[in-house]
Amino acid sequence: MSYAATHDQHDDHHGAPKGFFQRWCMSTNHKDIGTLYLIFSLTMLFIGGSFAMLIRAELFKPGMQLMQPYFFNEMTAMHALVMIFGAIMPAFVGLGNWMIPLMVGAPDMALPRMNNLSFWILPFAFLLLLSTLFMPGGAPAGGWTMYPPLSLQSGSLAYAVFAIHLMGISSIMGAINIIATILNMRAPGMDLMKMPVFVWSWLITAFLLIAVMPALAGAVTMLLTDKYFGTNFFNPGGGGDPVLYQHIFWFFGHPEVYIMILPAFGIISEIVPTFARKPIFGYKAMVFAIACIAFLSFIVWAHHMFAVGLPLGAEVFFMYATMLISVPTGVKVFNWVATMWGGSMTFETPMLFAIAFIILFTIGGFSGLMMALVPADFQYHDTYFIVAHFHYVLVTGALFAIIGAAYYWMPKWTGNMYNEFWGKVHFWNSVIWVNVLFFPQHFLGLAGMPRRIPDYNVAFANFNMISSIGGFLFGATQLIFVGVLIHCAFFSKKKATDRVWEGAKGLEWTIPSPAPHHTFEVPPVINDDELAHGHVND
Amino acid sequence: MTSGGIRRSFKAAAALALASFGSAALAAPGPWQLNMQRGASTWSQVPYHLNNVALGVCTVIGVLVFGAMFIAMFRFRKSRGAVAEKWSHNTTVEVVWTTIPVLILITLAYLATSGLTTWADTTGSQMTVKVTGYQWKWRYDYVDYLGKSIDKVGFMSKLDTRSDQTRQLGSGMDPFAVKDGNENTYLLDVDKPLVVPVDTKIRFVITSGDVIHSWWVPATGWKIDAIPGIINAAWANFTTPGTYRGQCAELCGQDHGFMPIVVVVKSKADFAKWLAEQEAGSAAPAAAAQTAQVAAPASGKQG
To answer: What residues of B are in contact with residue A503 (Cβ under 8 Å)?
Structure first.
């Protein structure tokens, strides 16, 4: 922004700082920090993705071709840790950082310096975690769940635990910031029940984060003291119990699953009404469903543990509670379809990703319902059926929503339109190869292939080869995404309008494209027709 | 190709598709297998049928929901001149599509719960086997059979040598060549299998000597974790003699993928003979002929 342009706007007396260090390392601006989060998450997506490529390469055919089994285990553990804590979660925080102030009419996040800190902790946390790959003992190889006693055999446990502590601190600070922003910084007239669904989904997610990250921190700290300070929390020889860890871990772990999907629900609830040119169907039901899912997420943790030998009563309780989740989730899916019904739809890239999300996430939900049935889960548990399930909800669920969000809001961020042709090439390649990658894994699991094994009987060879081919091509397809992003940010000649999308509603579309460094220094006037979900009290 | 040839090849393709989906009592996984196996125990039908029912329910719901979505995407396109309507709420349909899933869930829960209660009942077993997981092999100890305790029948069971050599990095050996008769047993064979009798309710008590493992033979219909300091119990009653294969199902370290489980189910007479041999074999080196004589009459009663 040139000096002349800002000269007559005396309030906007500082644009972005000129120096690189000042602008990016010392930033307190929600947009810059949001960008940092998103770039970080994209980097981690490729690092975690490269681990996945190694896994699929080893599993390409039976026999050990590329690596020792222990290194394979390092890859499965690191792939999960990097993707969950490095790619998916920071991407949602980045989107929240960018969009929440714009959507509620706030000038910035409530706690800008904490915002800076919560981002800049992350690169150090992941340097620490990734450095273990180069250490003599190797990286953690006991799975991302780090069940003791196995995880206690790892020489790099202390590094992993400290990295997780840092990630937890970062997440909690991010969550506090988001809650403070949403509850205190809304423009006058932006009532809670007028907020966009994305903002609602993040508000609820932030409470989940604050509730469960300490449980994870506690669990891994107990691992640390068991290994280095002679405690016996999980050591049966000293009166401890290895299953206790699993209870604490999954008390964190299950809400964590929803931390990674609720903001995705919010994103889809923004994209679908825009391209259907029709307000979201059942706004109140959508908000209530998110809250319901969040509540239920606290009372279903032991469905990850059906095979540890729980008492019958516990198995039945956790089965019923888990099955209940499909009711509010079903409501959300039905409402998205009802939003499309009677609309006037166009199919730009964000909408394509949103539609793929609805179908493929629902398929992941179906396999989730099947796994809730305890007797069937005795067969499914710890097989590739599970791997297929959680990749359908996390890749075609969370990741597709994030990619859709990037296409949806990128014109607002950069001021340029992305290339629609290459966006669609990216979409169709992604949606085809991701199914070639993960759908056969259902069959592998049902036929009896356990997860986390580096080699397998020849009966599993066919589907593993298909899955690997899908994996390589899905991975390569994401390079197109990077190309589209770079082109849009730096080379695109096509300027975005302020509204960007014909059917877009909400405060974020009332500001110029690209979004100026500072926005809403004077609170906007809220006009109900301008809101994404129309008049709530119809 | 003659019409007969076409019919034959069609039949063959149909048979292949049927075999890969509606699997018969498969002892081991097959190439292109699409669905869960039916198993070979009295209880293994429960997860198999539950899986099929749940899959059917999900498929029907999926067809309806995705069908509605595709109709919407076709009918309400801007390019076809669709004009967006204004409504965004309809209490009746919202109540309907909340209630119907609840009713479906109640049905599924009923089916699952009745199956689960039979699984949880380990009483009335006629035999007990203790299973202990180690990094990276299994130990089986025979505790009792038909009300009589068994002494000193127990052994380690680990990956067979052929698979073990083949699976080494850069071994240059072909996994497809590891065969037992016509069956490929790569990574699914052991040096000494667990031998049990058919038509007998067998109680497995399962624990671990180091980290957590999970004992899984799909033919039983269940898996259960082997946890140090905890003894889990489960039961199986095999209905058909045969060889059933499984694997450790809980990540337990570098050779997690290389600790298979093989259960050989024999007729009661064959099992009694096998058990007598084992008892004699284990007793002979230990305390000479005296113990062997005690074991011999015991085996006579077990036929």
So the answer is: 84
Across A54-136, where does the E strand assignment appear? none
**This prediction's pTM:** 0.92
Residue A129 lies in a domain: yes
Q: ipTM of this model?
A: 0.90
Angle (deg, nearest 10), helices A384-393 and A420-447: 160
Contacts of A478 (CB under 8 A, 6+ apart): A45, A46, A49, A430
Q: Can you give the CATH number for the domain in which A436 is found? A: 1.20.210.10
Q: Is A320 helix (H, G, I), strand (E, B) or coil?
A: helix
pLDDT in tens, B270-282: 999 999 999 988 7
Residues of A in contact with B120 (CB under 8 A): 312, 315
Q: State chain B's maximal CA–CA distance in angstroms.
A: 96
The answer to whether position A18 is within a domain reads: no
Rounded Cα distance, B269 and A100, in Å:
73
* Amino acid identity at A394: L
Q: How many CB atoms lie within 10 A of CB B14?
A: 10
pLDDT in tens, A10-40: 444 567 788 889 899 999 999 999 999 999 9
Angle between helices A69-81 and A112-131 (to 10 degrees): 170
Which is catalytic among the residues A32, A58, A74, A108? A108
Task: Identify the three-state secondary structure at position B141.
Answer: strand
Residues constituting chain B = 303
Q: Which residues of B touch A431 (CB under 8 A)?
A: none
Distance CA A322, CA A296 (A): 8
pLDDT at position B18 is 54
Structural domain contains residue A13: no
Q: Is A28 helix (H, G, I), strand (E, B) or coil?
A: coil
**A329 among known catalytic residues:** yes
Q: Which residues, in sequence order, are bridge partners of residue B196?
A: B265
Q: Is A238 on the interface with B (CB under 8 A)?
A: no
Does residue A83 register a pLDDT over 80?
A: yes
Structure tokens at A168: 């937890």
Residue A2 belongs to some domain of the structure? no
| Number of Cα atoms under 13 Å in the Cβ half of residue B167 | 26
What are the structure tokens assigned to B186, written together? 């790569």
Helix (H, G, I), strand (E, B) or coil at B278: helix
CATH number of the domain located at residue range(s) B127-301 in this protein? 2.60.40.420
Is B240 in a helix, a strand, or coil? coil
**Averaged confidence pLDDT in chain A:** 93
**Banded model confidence at residue A484, pLDDT cuts 50, 70, 90:** very high
DSSP designation for A516: P
CA A254 to CA A103: how far, in whole Å? 29
Which of 64-83 (A) contact B at CB < 8 A? 64-70, 73
Total residue length of chain A: 538
Q: Tokens representing A410?
A: 């990128």
Residue A439 domain boundaries: 26-530
